[in-house]
Specification:
single chain, alpha/beta, Glutaconate Coenzyme A-transferase, 5 helices
Length: about 240
């Protein structure tokens, strides 16, 4: 199975995700594509980003020149400090998450089902770790893990998945039922991919937006469940 070539890049996916940020929201960005969304907050809008490793109110992803390797996000990318930023331990970070204080969680995924079930984690062993945490992080050579995904999927008021629409071999990642380990059931509200924006509803998956140059048939060809075409279907707006 192969997907069309007209697909958005990861930065564009993150830009579309950022359109969902409302003024005053507390937002947690998971590893991978979601972390990029902090760079695209609309002008004049305040969004407070929380990271489960103990930061609240960080700014953009830092450039090499301004990087402080004591402050990084869920993808182990250094981020900038924002005015009023605070720091705390994991206990307090997860109190915020489990206590329902996060308005929006944006997570990556291996699969999302038509019911909104999420599968987004894997187990592996740490590699090339010699006790120097900063050096290890900079290599980028570490496997995926559970992280805070299970807590975020059920603790956040809303969950958005940001991901590539298909696997490397072109197989669907939007599926009827997840075949990977479930992170959480019926938790996803919106799916933003490099091909489309899909809303999870009780009636099924509603195709709301398509990437420029693509058609509903293109999206359906690489999506396992039957899609409901929105009456106001449009191209992705950034």
């Amino acid at each position: 199975m192969s997907a069309p070539k007209n697909r958005m890049d990861e930065q564009t996916i993150a830009m579309r995700v950022a359109r969902e940020f409302e003024d005053g929201m507390y937002v947690n960005l998971g590893g991978g594509i979601p972390t990029l969304a902090c760079n695209f907050v609309a002008e004049g809008r305040e969004v407070i980003f929380q990271t489960e490793n103990g930061g609240l109110g960080y700014g953009n992803i830092a450039s090499t020149e301004e990087a402080d390797w004591d402050m990084f996000n869920a993808s182990f990318q250094p981020v900038t400090y924002a005015p009023g930023m605070s720091f705390f331990d994991h206990d307090n970070a997860f109190d915020m998450i489990r206590g329902g204080h996060i308005d929006l969680s944006v997570l990556g995924a291996m699969q999302v089902s038509e019911q909104g079930d999420l599968a987004n984690w894997a187990i592996g062993n740490l590699v090339d770790y010699d006790g120097d945490v900063v050096a290890w992080i900079k290599t980028g050579r570490f496997p995926p893990g559970i992280g805070g995904a299970m807590d975020l999927a059920v603790g956040a008021k809303k969950v958005i998945v940001a991901m590539i629409h298909t696997t490397r071999d072109g197989s669907p990642k939007v599926v009827k039922e997840c075949t990977y380990e479930i992170t959480a059931c019926r938790c996803v509200s919106l799916i933003v991919t490099d091909m489309a924006v899909i809303e999870v509803t009780p009636a099924g998956l509603v195709l709301k937006e398509v990437a420029p140059g693509l058609t509903p048939d293109d999206i359906q060809a690489v999506t396992e469940p039957e899609l409901i075409i929105a009456d106001d279907l449009k191209e992705v707006e950034l």
